Amino acid sequence: MLTLPPFTYHAPATVSEAVALLAEHRGDVKLLAGGTDLLPNMKHRLFTPAHLVGLRSVRGLAEIAEKDGAVRLGPMVSIARLARDPLVEQRLPSLQAAAQAIAGPQLRQMGTLGGNLCLDTRCVFYNQTAFWRLALGYCLKKDGTVCHVVKAGKRCVAAASNDTAPALLTLGARIRVAGPLGTRDVALADFYFADGVRNLGLQEDEVLTGIEVPSPEAGQRSGFQKLRVREAVDYPSLSVAVSSALDAGGNARWVRVAVSALGARPHLVGSLESLTGSKLTSAAVAEIGRIAHRQCHPLTNINIDPAWRRDLIPVLVKRAFETCRLARAS
């Protein structure tokens, strides 16, 4: 039986109180949102903080509202609520599809949007018990000096596994962060880094306080697809989100595609500018899939064949465009 290490739990009522607690215990503290990822990791002794700062009692972090041309989402909104909220369904369908694909009903009830966006990276050599990792000699991400995925690697390649991130990336989301020096706004695309040990642009004494998504334009559609071994519970082996806006003539004003669960950060597919002003025919979508395939190179950081995952990228791109009815016949 795996047990939690000892810790002191703090329940601040305001963001400023939470920030103060994080600053006071800096280096030996973790934020607790839903706990569906953090607590199992603590049982595996991946984290052993002496203090946990819970956010459930903090006021104002669980809103879903459309104001001033943007959909505003609180970080403490549960995944279950995202999966059924009528405003999210109407305005951000790809985000709702991503939420519906996360884990199972019990975990969605406890898990939160902010927690999912800040989810720790995962690797088959990292997400194991302390005994298992000791037998292997630990790894670059925790207690060791060797990456077992890339033998001569100097940077951890544990994979981003947060399903909401690629959907929000294609929707142009921004986040708000509060810290000792005040608040700052960050484009979600600038929030993630290609470092599996620490892939978030969030300091130890900062709190994610809000997510803002521009209200959809006329003709904007979005879709999401997820590959996993089992249809419930499993983390993604691959996830794809797409979004585009079509003008009155059916031509694309812009196209965004994000692929995740392959590397340490979600990947926004580049070189799609040539599609601007053209129709998203089946041939065009197939070309987007080929572009994404060329740009993505999965590793053996999870127990799924990387070549197969890569070959599935064009398939999921095609399905994502079909689900939001953006693709048209040639």
Topology record:
Elements: E1 8-10, H1 15-24, E2 29-32, H2 38-43, E3 51-54, E4 64-67, E5 70-73, H3 79-84, H4 86-91, H5 93-100, H6 105-110, H7 113-117, H8 130-136, H9 164-170, E6 174-179, E7 182-187, E8 207-214, E9 220-227, E10 238-246, E11 252-260, E12 267-268, H10 282-295, H11 306-323
Parallel strand pairs: 1-3, 2-3
Antiparallel strand pairs: 4-5, 5-8, 6-7, 6-8, 9-10, 10-11, 11-12
The whole-angstrom Rg is 20 Å
The averaged pLDDT comes out at 95
Could you describe the largest sheet, including whether it forms a barrel?
A: 5 strands, antiparallel
Strand order within the widest sheet?
4-5-8-6-7
Question: Helix count, per DSSP?
Answer: 11
**Cα distance, first to last residue?**
57 Å
Q: At CATH's second level, what is the architecture of the domain at 220-323?
A: 2-Layer Sandwich
CATH superfamily of the domain at 220-323: CO dehydrogenase flavoprotein, C-terminal domain
Portion of residues in helices? 25-40%
The CATH class of the domain at 220-323 is Alpha Beta
Low-confidence stretches: none
Judged by helices, strands and strand pairing, the structural class is alpha+beta
Query: What's the shape?
Result: globular
